[in-house]
Write a structure and sequence with these properties.
By secondary structure, this protein is mainly β. Helices cover 0% and strands 48% of the residues. The strands form 5 sheets. Strands 3, 4, 6, 7, 9, 10, 12, 14, 16, 17, 20, 21, 24 and 27 form a 14-stranded mixed β-sheet that branches. Strands 13-15-18-22-25-29-28 form a 7-stranded mixed β-sheet, with no helix packed on it.
């Protein structure tokens, strides 16, 4: 059940009422939603370390604005089928289901998971690498795909953080059914699982329509000391890791210091 705003009474969920999940809520187990629910507003104001998980067979429907704030994570295994919008102003909203409403990712917000987004996405631009960020994949599916079915435009100062295994030849990717457009400077943060990084091309994003991007404006993070090239192909963004010469063995140095 829910507690009133003054913390004095408890009640079950009622349609048309606003709900908030904050530090006072019980997050010891998943919150089960097994039917369509329509609150007037849906606030996720959970601090870091006080995360929530929503699962079940239901979904969030109606003209409801979903707002994610503070630094905690909210994980959805149910569809967000609002007809209004969802706003990630801070922290992480992770989804393995569908998001069917316009989505706003603000300067300190992160969208993560293997979600399928069926509506436009708007980016404010990041303050640093932990904001205005897409993180395809999840703990359960490290090399998963985040899908956008309405095209996608990255206006600059957008970070995409992906997990890469060169040993397995796998990476978590962003897939766009439609056109993919990059403007300004955008960033890929690559979390490589390998100690011995193998050479080769690795796809980080792809689209079924037209890719409009300048490889010179695609910046890569976390490959310090590794020779690489950012490249654009017909409908893919690729990072190619070049081979390195192994150090010679048995070399004797002579001479004076």
């Amino acid at each position: 059940g829910f507690t009133s705003f003054d913390q004095k009474t408890t009640a079950a969920f009622a349609y048309g009422k606003s709900v908030i999940f904050d530090i006072s809520g019980d997050n010891s187990s998943d919150i089960a939603i097994n039917k369509a629910v329509t609150p007037s507003s849906f606030f996720l104001m959970n601090p870091k370390g006080h995360d929530y998980r929503f699962s079940g067979t239901g979904k969030i429907t109606g003209d409801v604005v979903i707002k994610k704030g503070m630094q905690g994570k909210a994980t959805f295994g149910i569809d967000i089928a609002s007809t209004a919008k969802a706003v990630i102003s801070e922290g992480t909203l992770e989804s393995s289901a569908a998001i069917n409403c316009p989505l706003y990712i603000m300067a300190r917000g992160t969208l993560a998971g293997t979600t399928t987004v069926n509506a436009p996405v708007y980016f404010e631009g990041a303050l640093n690498y932990e904001g205005c960020r897409l993180m395809p994949g999840s703990a359960d599916d490290r090399f998963g795909t985040m899908t956008f079915n309405n095209g996608l435009t990255l206006p600059g100062k957008v970070y995409i953080e992906t997990t890469l295994s060169t040993a397995e030849g796998k990476a978590a990717i962003v897939k766009v059914n439609g056109d993919l457009t990059l403007k300004g400077i955008n960033y890929f943060t690559i979390d490589c699982t390998d100690t011995d990084i193998k050479a080769g091309p690795y796809t980080l994003a792809e689209c079924t329509g037209t890719l409009t991007a300048d490889a010179a404006n695609i910046k890569v993070r976390n490959l310090n000391g590794v020779p690489y090239r950012s490249q654009t192909e017909t409908n893919k963004m690729v990072v190619t890791i070049d081979s390195q010469r192994k150090p010679a063995e048995g070399v004797l140095w002579e001479g004076s210091t």
